[in-house]
Amino acid sequence: MELSREIETQGVSRKVAADMFGMALRTYQKKVQRVSAGATVRDRTLWQAVLEFLTGRGSASRRELLEEFSRDDPVNVGSVLSDLVASGLVSRTGVGDATVFTMTQESELAAVRRAERRETLAPVVWALVYRSTGMTRAVLRERLAVPDDELGEALAVLEREGRVERSGTGELATYQSSFLELPLDAEHGWEAAVFDHFQAMVRAIGTKVRRRTPRAHAADVTGGATLTFVVDQNHPLREEALGLLRRVRTDVNDLWQRVQAHSVAHGLAEDQTEILFYFGQVVTDSDEE
Is this prediction's pTM over 0.85? Predict the structure, then answer.
């Protein structure tokens, strides 16, 4: 909230501010409205006020909360409550006005966070190891800033499942991986997928600049392309444009499977070539701009 206010004080338009936060304008406006100072409690955001009220009470029904913050828009109060529940700070039981919101005990919250971190840490470690020529446990711990026991648990899982290989022991042990595969429907590991995609994009741009070949040519094997398709609900090619991600993902996955199968069956010579391919798609409707 403070950053948003400072940016706008400097004369930056809300549209540009929204872009800086990586949000569509309408989403940004709603977010600012939600966390702006509530009418019921001065000098605090509505989010802070609701959280402090629940902290003091331990629990409260939706009816009690709406009465306590009667001078605020009920929609904003409901949005704050949904946000608190989604963050795990508050739990919700029941339906309608009888719904009871209860503060999550700190010990329970800490346990949940530890469990979530264990499940998401392994894919991130795997991605880091795969994109390096070899990484020690000490370097991994420094890069990720996680407790040593949690890092050790993640590495043990990756070793046991054959996703990374270790050479040496102790702090000087080096971990390597020859492949990285994050299933499309995986419940955990999206952080590693985002990291790997971003790193691929930066690597492609960096390679292009380093080779001093800023111009694109039809025969290029390093580079990228960005195209924007603008369609309405009745455009005859709307579905074809929307299906780009699905079709490219299917084609690329099929090729990857065939390349892997041949490599495993016949092996690879020492003069290997790595082809790092990345792609993405984002769809934005006019009411989000």
Answer: no
